[in-house]
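The passage that follows is intended for readers who have already worked through the single-chain material. We present the inputs for a multi-component assembly, then the predicted structure in tokenized form, and finally a short commentary. You are encouraged to pause after the input and sketch how you expect the pieces to fit together before reading on.
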Amino acid sequence: MSTGLERFSINQMTVKQLSLPELVEACVELGVPGVGLWREPVRAHGVEAAAKLVRDAGLTVTTLCRGGFLTATDPAERSAALADNRRAVDEAAALGTDTLVLVSGGLPAGSKDLHGARERIADALAELGPYARSHGVRLAIEPLHPMYAADRCVVSTLAQALDLAERFPAHQVGVTVDTYHIWWDDRAPEQIARAGAAGRIHTFQLADWTTPLPEGVLNGRGQIGDGAIDMREWKGYVEAAGYTGAIEVELFNDGLWARNGREVLAETAARFVEHVSR
Amino acid sequence: MSTGLERFSINQMTVKQLSLPELVEACVELGVPGVGLWREPVRAHGVEAAAKLVRDAGLTVTTLCRGGFLTATDPAERSAALADNRRAVDEAAALGTDTLVLVSGGLPAGSKDLHGARERIADALAELGPYARSHGVRLAIEPLHPMYAADRCVVSTLAQALDLAERFPAHQVGVTVDTYHIWWDDRAPEQIARAGAAGRIHTFQLADWTTPLPEGVLNGRGQIGDGAIDMREWKGYVEAAGYTGAIEVELFNDGLWARNGREVLAETAARFVEHVSR
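Having made your guess, compare it with the prediction:
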């Protein structure tokens, strides 16, 4: 009998108050089959140990978050970013996931040149795509909401992400479809179709849109069902585009982080069943 | 000799700490030829008295802000909104401006239907457009940044605003081009061209993008030159599209509001000369 959780994956950031062993244990108990991991806690635990932990528990690592930050102009910074992204690919491969999420990076200090920054991402992908491919990893460019365009991610729409991705083979570079970042965009459904037709939907993530936004606008992603986004509608778009993979819930939310992590995971699983699966 | 201020208009909200008479006096002293007015302070002063004040000072009222908030589903709310917008048209006409800026409104409480909300705006424009035209006033739909899509304005891009505006004659309905809301959008330059070709750029407003955004993301619009937006680039786009009208600086900024209003106006005029005119 279906639990409604078969496609659910919990992104580690949603319950960052849990240690990796606590997260794995809670997933097993609650019947959560997938996890999206973050590099920092994985490295703190040890990459190989983390890989063994999730593998032994029977969990699927749906993504590793995150590489990217590829917009620097300074040659030393740029070189360091590329090296760090190659390490992220190595870590993804070690964890047994095929998808590395990329957050592109914002404008360098003092720069007003969005177009130039986007072109530097393309240059970096030309180096990183083949490297990732040779390790069995796909890069998934994540367009972030336009409110992050200056300081975090100059790729603001799915159309822009695909314009970048399509310069490379789909098995090297695709996109992350995250409801939080694209829900306002009336072009996003057609862009999801475009991505799906080319096999470029490398992961599908959910967060709800709630207001008022907090200062800095980073940690106000709403629990599924609490906000303005119709999750079933967006699930319908990615499914119509041929996506049958895991659906990750990734929330950055100070309120959720202040609570018991296991309770938040249970609540998130229940919300997933209510607003996504059923 | 050019002062560089010939096309400058100060939006009243930028220096809301000034009373209307103080604002008018400061504009005259500083050689600022235009003002964009807001309904609330105008009504507090009296619409006819405000009209006489600015007229006698030789100032041009470049816009009235604002009508809109047309997304309600409740019939009584909807009827009240339409009546209020007709009053806004009357006030614009009384003030001698030909442009009423419209902020469309957000999702009704509990709604997740952006498309439906946008269609209700179109329905409202069908009533308001002819009324405005008969009073010599043009409606200027303002797309607001996508971060306001849920709670303030379901029209998030210039393309969406034009999709709405083009259902009506250009002398009834056009758009507001405001750098703060569209600077991240790589499609905006082509949409400015589209708007200009049809005579639908009814006003051009400036604010700079600075981070971090404050809680609620309303009052963090940066002083010209302080942020990520290349003002000359955007001025170039609207000019290439045939726009030769006033350029309004509209800042909502707690830091600026805490300062002496006349100093802020002088600073804003100087920034305009430095980053826009020269």
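Commentary: Strands of chain B lie at 8-11, 34-38, 60-68, 99-103, 138-141, 173-178, 201-206, 208-209, 221-222, 247-249. The longest strand of chain B covers residues 60-68. How closely did your sketch match?
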